[in-house]
Every structure is written in C-alpha cells, then in structure tokens.
Write a structure and sequence with these properties.
This protein is of the alpha+beta class. It is built from two helices and four strands. Helix content is 32%, strand content 26%.
Length: 87
C-alpha cells in the first residue's frame, strides 16, 4: 500500500520520530513522509511511534491508498527529495 504519514510531536521527540519514520518511508517535508509499505511494516512503525509519542499532546496521521497512481500529487516550489529511482 502507499501511504502519506504526518506527525506533530513535541520538540524533544521530533528527532526520534524523524529517525524512526525515515527507516520506513521517504522524507518529503518537515514531519511528512510518503512511500510504499506493507501492512506489517506499517503496524511496526505505528507501534514504535506510540513508544515515542506523548498520547496526550502528540499525533500521527496516516493516509492510505492502494497504489500511488490513485493519488494526484502537485508540487509547487522546490521538492525536498526526488523519489524517482533510476537503475
């Protein structure tokens, strides 16, 4: 599945959350990630994120779609990271 993940965590936890999310997805903007991920890996990511988060103040939002082709994406300005893979 293809996901867009967005988080909002306290300053003290931002570094840990960034490091965690970069293990699973592509970092496209501050606190925003996207990419292909399996259900199992997504569950693993969410459980690890919960260990970092303060559930009273922090949030993690995951938008899911079956494939990236069903998502229309428009970039205005400079893209942080080009996700094209050339072999």
């Amino acid at each position: 599945m293809y996901v867009i993940l967005v988080y909002d965590v306290g300053e003290k936890r931002v570094g840990k959350m960034l490091k965690l999310c970069r293990k699973y997805l592509n970092w496209i903007q501050n606190s925003v990630f996207e990419g292909e991920i399996s259900e199992v890996k997504l569950l693993e990511l969410k459980l690890s994120a919960q260990n970092i988060m303060d559930e009273e103040t922090d949030s993690l939002i995951v938008f899911k779609t079956r494939q990236e082709k069903w998502l229309e994406k428009e970039i205005v300005g400079k893209e942080r990271q080009n996700l094209d893979n050339f072999l």
